[in-house]
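BUG: 3D viewer hangs when loading the predicted structure for this chain

Environment: internal workstation, default settings.
Expected: structure renders.
Actual: progress bar stalls at 90%.

Input used:
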Amino acid sequence: MKWKRLSKKKILVLVTLLTLVVFGVSGVYALVTPTLRLTASVAKTRFQIGEVVKITITLQNIGLWPITFTYRQPLFDFVVYDEASKEIFRWGNVSLIELWVNPITLWPTQTTTKVLTWNQEKYTNGNFCPVSKGTYTIATLTRVVHQNRDLLLTTQPIMVTIE
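Structure tokens produced before the viewer hung:
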């Protein structure tokens, strides 16, 4: 088989078309795919018994375009698990819960942050009781609705030790 040599003009047209297809598809993908990142942190991982554990949770738009979403209160939540992986506390169950709130728009790189607290309590038989010494896992999350899609975002679990 004999190959025909393409002219520089044809090569330029092919490269341009290929570039438009690749960037066009990725641009459309970026427009329809939410680009939110949820992060969480604590100032330290060892706490004295009874010491308040402050959890900083941040939601950031890491995309190239503004993103608008709605959510059901609370925007941020966390769950505490004991060493047996049993849920012992959920912040959203004790916070003031409202219905749907107005949409939020985050511009590229913009964040929204909240500091939530755990008073080292567990919910047992309808009562709050202090936890005992041990290691606990904190899982943070948010649920948002973007373009009629319900999105659940979580972070890596945070391990804290109560001494």
